[in-house]
């Protein structure tokens, strides 16, 4: 059980492990929403983005609360059938950072809603979209604290120079995600 830090109410936290093309993705959450998505720490990534590969829940499949079911369904679609993610519900989030009103939350919601699959945005552009054009550095901080990577697509935020910039899952993973989206978008565009 986890204290959600909000009014002291206890969450019955469940954990699920999704075997993805990136490796083991750990997802935690409760009946109220997803708490966190933990990406694997890797120095090497699997074969190219053109072969999405399987994506299955390997731990915690029993008694999964609805937000975790939605989260695993969304991630599975992201890796295997990206065209379908737009029609799937985004799971509810239950992380303290996404509960309280802050610039970080504003940035993460803006990113989730406005930067679509296969697109990229600079830190400065995202600061503009979130309502503070001078807050590019703060956007970087928001990306570092993103508890729900991939669904809240912080990998789509790049430097103005076009350089990919940093990523919590590592440089290779960010490049893999960006090229996965680009390839899938090209397939859909044909």
From TrEMBL:
<comment type="similarity">
    <text>Belongs to the MGMT family.</text>
</comment>
<dbReference type="GO" id="GO:0046872">
    <property type="term" value="F:metal ion binding"/>
</dbReference>
<dbReference type="InterPro" id="IPR036388">
    <property type="entry name" value="WH-like_DNA-bd_sf"/>
</dbReference>
<dbReference type="GO" id="GO:0006281">
    <property type="term" value="P:DNA repair"/>
</dbReference>
<comment type="function">
    <text>Involved in the cellular defense against the biological effects of O6-methylguanine (O6-MeG) and O4-methylthymine (O4-MeT) in DNA. Repairs the methylated nucleobase in DNA by stoichiometrically transferring the methyl group to a cysteine residue in the enzyme. This is a suicide reaction: the enzyme is irreversibly inactivated.</text>
</comment>
<feature type="domain" description="Methylguanine DNA methyltransferase ribonuclease-like">
    <location>
        <begin position="20"/>
        <end position="91"/>
    </location>
</feature>
<dbReference type="InterPro" id="IPR014048">
    <property type="entry name" value="MethylDNA_cys_MeTrfase_DNA-bd"/>
</dbReference>
<keyword id="KW-0539">Nucleus</keyword>
<dbReference type="Pfam" id="PF02870">
    <property type="entry name" value="Methyltransf_1N"/>
</dbReference>
<dbReference type="InterPro" id="IPR008332">
    <property type="entry name" value="MethylG_MeTrfase_N"/>
</dbReference>
<dbReference type="GO" id="GO:0003908">
    <property type="term" value="F:methylated-DNA-[protein]-cysteine S-methyltransferase activity"/>
</dbReference>
<keyword id="KW-0597">Phosphoprotein</keyword>
<dbReference type="GO" id="GO:0005654">
    <property type="term" value="C:nucleoplasm"/>
</dbReference>
<protein>
    <recommendedName>
        <fullName>Methylated-DNA--protein-cysteine methyltransferase</fullName>
        <ecNumber>2.1.1.63</ecNumber>
    </recommendedName>
</protein>
<keyword id="KW-0238">DNA-binding</keyword>
<keyword id="KW-0808">Transferase</keyword>
<dbReference type="InterPro" id="IPR036631">
    <property type="entry name" value="MGMT_N_sf"/>
</dbReference>
<dbReference type="InterPro" id="IPR001497">
    <property type="entry name" value="MethylDNA_cys_MeTrfase_AS"/>
</dbReference>
<dbReference type="InterPro" id="IPR036217">
    <property type="entry name" value="MethylDNA_cys_MeTrfase_DNAb"/>
</dbReference>
<dbReference type="GO" id="GO:0032259">
    <property type="term" value="P:methylation"/>
</dbReference>
<keyword id="KW-0234">DNA repair</keyword>
<keyword id="KW-0862">Zinc</keyword>
<keyword id="KW-0489">Methyltransferase</keyword>
<dbReference type="Pfam" id="PF01035">
    <property type="entry name" value="DNA_binding_1"/>
</dbReference>
<keyword id="KW-0479">Metal-binding</keyword>
<feature type="domain" description="Methylated-DNA-[protein]-cysteine S-methyltransferase DNA binding">
    <location>
        <begin position="105"/>
        <end position="182"/>
    </location>
</feature>
<dbReference type="GO" id="GO:0003677">
    <property type="term" value="F:DNA binding"/>
</dbReference>
<keyword id="KW-0227">DNA damage</keyword>
